[in-house]
Amino acid sequence: MDDPGLYGATPMAIRKIVHVDMDAFYASVEQRDDASLRGRPVVVAWRGKRSVVCAASYEARKFGVRSAMAAVHAERLCPDAIFIPPDFSRYKAVSQAVQEIFRRHTDLIEPLSLDEAYLDVTKNRMGLATATLVARTIRQQIRGELNLTASAGVAPNKFLAKIASDWRKPDGLFVIQPHEVEEFLTPLPVGRIPGVGKVMEKRLEQIGVAKVGHLRRMGQGELQRLFGKYGMRLYELSRGIDHSRVIPDRPTKSISSEDTFESDIPLDAMEEIIRMLAEKVWNASRKQGRIARTVVLKLKTSDFNILTRSHTPAAPPSSAEELAEIALSLRERIEPASDQRFRLAGVGLNNFQDAERLASSLFD
Q1: Is 116 a known active-site residue?
Q2: Which of 17, 46, 91, 165 has its CA 20 to 30 A from that of 321?
Q3: Domain spans, the chain
Q4: Is the dihedral of CA 352, 353, 359, 361 positive or negative?
Q5: Which pLDDT score is estimated for 360?
Q6: Any bridge partners for residue 82, and if so which?
């Protein structure tokens, strides 16, 4: 970020934030390490009706295959895809090598997962003149030393940097200067704002808000009245305001996956959905170097009441199937009315602990 001007509507010190996102990370590592896979559609996933896609190469994505998709659906979309079981220990080792490259430039690194991180390069160790040059150098080092590609976004804050990193994927770099923020945000669909999922997007469309520019016309009070505390967040993000800082070594508090159904369903019809969600959460949890102790089941009724049940077993779940069984057992602790239906289900893991510390406590 090379312009000393202000962004949004709030005068504050301009930070220089880079968001780096490895391109199709797991699949790219597999293609790098096995020349026979290069240029071919690779899907990183276990086969089976309950498995989900961990990653898909760009060759597979051309057929519509995406991360978190059911593996059986991916196979239907791309029958010639090569399925590779994930090797998370190898991916973690490569991720650590990427982190070493980041540390040459700044100590302010906030990893989001094995394949992406925020970097605050307002001051950088190598004395490079601009944040754009820092991002370009990092991408060159990743390519030259690890034979992998990464996309990067450069912006005055984390919110904008994350959007920017996705703008020219794969193997791209996109910069949003402070004076360009309003022009950049105005035409974007509101679904690009963090937290605006399909349900929220429909609610906004019902009040005539389809673009970020439409949202910016609404007053702070009106947004808070309609959406509570999140209304304030919408007000700020629509103006490019994000005060959140890059926090190094931020511990993972929870991992979860939710699904809002097209039509409300009874409790006893959720087994496959809960198993699918558990698989997604399990795969996401493997990216962490820590282990979760507590399993959470979340349900939202047709009249928007939220019910949660949790359980901390003597030993943490050791597989996606075990996680699913615990989540299904939590379903039995809910006693709905005979005609009660549900619009959303979610499975989560929390109460994370370091693996070494947990192992020690279990055998004391």
Answers
A1: yes
A2: 91
A3: 17-23+89-181, 25-88, 186-237, 254-353
A4: negative
A5: 46
A6: 42
From 116, 201, 258, 335, the catalytic residue: 116
Sort 26 into a burial class: Cβ within 10 Å, 0-12 / 13-18 / 19+: buried
Between the alpha carbon of residue 197 and those of residues 55, 161, 300, the distances in Å are: 21, 19, 16
Residue 208's region, left for phi above 0, alpha for psi from -120 to 50, else beta, is left
pLDDT (tens digit, 9 = 90+) per residue, 96-152? 999 999 999 999 999 988 899 999 999 999 999 999 999 999 999 999 999 999 999
CATH T-level assignment (fold) for domain 25-88: MutS, DNA mismatch repair protein, domain I (3.40.1170)
pLDDT of residue 312: 92
Q: Are 181 and 242 in contact (CB under 8 A)?
A: no
**For the chain, which residues score pLDDT lower than 50?**
1-12, 356-364
**CA dihedral sign, ordered 246, 249, 253, 257:** positive
Nearest to 252 by CA among 151, 114, 356, 55: 114
Residues 6 or more apart whose CB falls under 8 angstroms from that of 181 comprise 7, 8, 155, 156, 160, 240
Look at the block and give the residue holding tokens 């979340």: 298
pLDDT (tens digit per residue) in 283-317? 888 766 668 889 999 998 887 788 999 999 888 88
| Lookup: tokens for 212 | 């970020």
